[in-house]
Amino acid sequence: MDMISLAHAAVVPVILANLALLASSRLVTCIRLVALQGAVISVTPLIFESGPLTVHTAVLCAVALGLKGVVFPLLLHRTLRRVVVRHEIEPYLGYPLSILLGILGLLASLWLAGRLGVPAGSYRSFAAAFAAILTGLLLIVTRKKAFTQVMGYLTAENGIFLLTAVLAPGGPLFIELAILLDVFVAVFVMGIAIHHINRQFDCIDTDRFCSLKD
Amino acid sequence: MTARVLAVLLPLVLAPLAFGVIHRVKARFAGRQGKPLTQIYLDIRKCLGKGATISRTTTWLFRAGPTINLAATLAALPFVPLGGLPAAVSFPGDIFVFVYLLAMGRFFTIMAALDTGSSFEGMGASREAVYSCLAEPMLFLALLALARHSGDLSLSGMLSAVSAGSWLTGAPVLALVTVALFLILLAENCRVPFDDPNTHLELTMIHEVMVLDHGGPDFAFIEYAQTLKLWIFAAVATSLLLPAASGVLAWDALWGLAGVFAAAAAVGVTESVMARLRLTRVPPLLAAAGAFAALALILVGG
User: Fold this and answer.
1) How many domains, chain B?
2) What is the predicted ipTM?
3) pTM
4) I need a labelling partner for B169 at 20 to 30 A (CA). Which of A123, A155, B52, B57 fits?
5) Residue B181 belongs to domain spanning
């Protein structure tokens, strides 16, 4: 199996996870999907690196895999247990419409990849990465629960990670690691924030913020 | 030549056996002994020996329905290759003839159901029409992805172009198309999770409720056409998973049979481990099949 078909094989789960995230209302499923997507994405730098395996790519992959595949899901599961929610109920945008928008986003990213003149080998991976970013933004904008918005944030981060792996193979390690650390802290803080929102409002619907007065 | 004849003869004889395999797998999952593998042959023979009672409100359409359905399915059969065996008939663009022959069979089944004037049959007919409306574009999308993958517009050609080597280079595409085709197989053959062939409540039936008023030889035709249709879809879906022809006739035939019966066993397992979906949840599942096929198409092209 050559590297290009391996890259294709990695692209498919990423795109499917995007669509499944838009379609699923169960938060546990969402966590698993994001974790799966993160795990797949965190090994892509190995595929796109042109030369022999360097230490810093290996470190980056290992750290990303550890954070995205293990630490985030554990943290999110813990938060989920503390705030008693199971389902995303009544999003601003229905599930069928979300999936449709997700597919449109994928098509738009394919179009964009064509316009930008991305090298043929990474054409689809670029599209998948951009689609993941769009999916993440869509989740953040159209879901009411703070929890699902964190999922959207993580999906967008997955997309950005894949994008750097595609466009700058063997790229700047420190920037990547710094971003990963930022995301780690953000998820940590969000977990605490969700807990506090839950305590304050008895739910984690962010549209309740609209009724806040000083 | 022998191979082409065999690709048509084997399904004609063995198609009901695939149904037996499904029943047996389901029975084993439930911890039962199960009916004999050849039960459906006995059922068909029994029905053929009976007379039929036909309502006076029906017209010739009611009688014609099962016959045309069987004829259309029989006509679609020669387009399907079996494992390594080539299809008996194949020409560029035969996928359209193939799909529309099956659609014609279904159309006449629906017409016959509407012809009874029974409200239940009308309900079943409307459901079947809706599902087939959704399943047909998905089937075309999956076949289109295959056509682009192999650069061949005949069913036999595009399926035989798949080899072990193409799995190495195009595994994501082929895997997506196989999953899409399996979902379409379940939908088109009215299996769980789309429809429960064993249900006995008219309100929940889809395919079965359409054929409630048929009896005797008509019903035997329906049953036989149903087994052939399952065979056709199973053969199409599994020939993707099997490497290309080896050239040895017996080996190719055996390989094809193994594929079809494995597909039947997979259907049995699917039916055992999951429940039938609510009617409103079916279109999203078919849309998922379509999404798989569309994704495969995107991955092939560009």
Assistant:
1) 1
2) 0.71
3) 0.85
4) A155
5) 1-301
